[in-house]
Design goal:
It is a single chain. By secondary structure, the protein is mostly helical. The protein contains 6 helices and no strands. Helix 1 packs antiparallel against helix 2.
């Protein structure tokens, strides 16, 4: 669940903050739905994840507001990862 939350956050940063994308909308939607289902099925464990404070009411429909919910350190850390992922994606095209 932690990894999927991180993936959704990184993809949201790439899309909404860096104005690009490396995955299709279909893939994002599929992973977002999977995360929502996991958080419902394992609600106790979900509340113990690193990014629960961002995903507490996430319904999978969009990730546009996730960045603004993050604390300063998480924004910096995940933006660094998103930038790296985007760079790697551009190299492989």
């Amino acid at each position: 669940m932690d990894a999927l939350q991180r993936w959704v956050l990184v993809q949201s940063i790439i899309y909404y903050e860096l104005n690009s994308s490396v995955v299709s909308d279909k893939e994002f939607d599929s992973n977002a739905r999977q995360l929502v289902a996991m958080q419902k099925q394992y609600s106790k464990e979900a509340k113990e994840t690193e990014y629960w404070y961002v995903f507490y009411d996430f319904d999978g429909s969009t990730g546009f507001d996730l960045f603004e919910r993050m604390n300063k350190d998480d924004k910096a850390y995940l933006t660094q990862i998103a930038t790296h992922v985007l760079r790697l994606s551009k190299r492989s095209r």
